[in-house]
Amino acid sequence: MRADIPLLAFRDVWKTYGAGEAQVHALAGVDLSIRQGEFVAIMGPSGSGKSTSMNIIGCLDTPTRGVYDFLGVDAGALDRSRRAMLRNRYIGFVFQGYNLLPRTTAAENVELPLVYRGVAARERRALAMEALAQVGLEGRESHTPAELSGGQQQRVAIARAIVTRPTLLVADEPTGNLDTARTHEIMDLLTNLNVANGLTIVMVTHEADVAEYAERTISFLDGKIASDTARLEAA
């Protein structure tokens, strides 16, 4: 069950680059909130503000002014090290490029975030195996990225993102390198993680058919939210 308090919220968030005549408002007074357990797609043309929003949501950047509230904390006011702690504890990331270590097995790639946390080797391996099973890669634990298809590599990347059991998954064009069939497989997987595990997902995509998997789509234009639409479920 979702809490009444949003998982994350923007309150009059601005992000400004440059100064004087060269000043650009990447975000211009954005207000939004996302509840725990939602699956939200973020869309918009290049320069619309969607990537800037995702960077702030993922605690990779901070607002120039305004408040970014994450789990009741003004994350935008935290220093770099505290944002990193918040990010590492609560947020998982999936990117268009799989960002896997090429000479490292699937299991070892998935274990990496746990290494940074100082988790013991035996527990790391058990958690990695569990995460790989969740994404349908039983039996592929010892394969290197070169021995896996693009879709399987993205599954490893998703397993790495969820092995720490994050509260929020940030997915940046997660199907951008995949063909149509693999795209739908990955989107079905993300949907299942959202529904079965209650994982909150915020996903940037430029593909309308991919956005349709989300229950809500937020479209940006010129640094502002142009539309915020919930999907109507079939009766």
From TrEMBL:
The record's Pfam families line, in alphabetical order, gives:
ABC_tran
Question: Where would I find the ABC transporter domain in this sequence?
Answer: 8-234
Task: Specify the species.
Answer: Neoaquamicrobium microcysteis
The protein, known as = ABC transporter ATP-binding protein
Any one annotated GO CC term: plasma membrane
The UniProt entry, under PROSITE patterns, shows: ABC_TRANSPORTER_1, ABC_TRANSPORTER_2
- Keyword tags: ATP-binding, Cell inner membrane, Cell membrane, Membrane, Nucleotide-binding, Translocase, Transport
Tell me the GO molecular function terms: ATP binding; ATP hydrolysis activity; transmembrane transporter activity
The record's family statement is: Belongs to the ABC transporter superfamily. Macrolide exporter (TC 3.A.1.122) family.
